[in-house]
Amino acid sequence: MAKNLKKGFTMVEILVALGIFSMLALATAWILIISLRSNKVIWEQLQTQADGRRTLGEIVEVVRKAELSSVGGYPVVTTSPYELSVYANIDEDTLRERVRFFIDANANTLRRGIIKPNGSPLQYNQNNEVLTTLASEVVNDDRGVPAFTYFDESYTGSELALTQPVSSTQVHVVKIQLELERDPTASPEPLHVETTVHIRNLKTN
User: Does 1 fall in a domain?
Assistant: First the structure.
């Protein structure tokens, strides 16, 4: 009569099984980590894009309605690649504020400064400028991309921008573009958002 074979696992079989299980567990964990990181990057890009479009909307709203200042100054004041200033009425009164949009390269931010005229006679005092940050992670200056480019009244969509220095009286259209990079280590290229705005009160046709 044949001897009954002992049923069970040898130590080698157990170690092999544990090794395979460990590798499968590590692979699953790694896939999960990569997936979570990818989802985080995608979410941040979507959030950055939404922030960029919101910021562009705020700038467009002001620039579109630029007009003569409350003391008769020309609607467009500053026309540099990283700074744009206009006069516009942005609140409930009849006075036109001086509104400045500029890149703060030291902090990688896009900021807005507002000067409300006061005094008698009215004047725009630079010391009264109120600053707020509109967008962070703005890397236009780092990448040499102008935030503002300017076009004259003949602009139809294909003309070249006016060359710097730009005379404020030439400007009828402004192109605004932002380079946004929330996490330089996660995305190979910054997110680019742009728009073009016509200054309504300067239209001649």
Answer: no
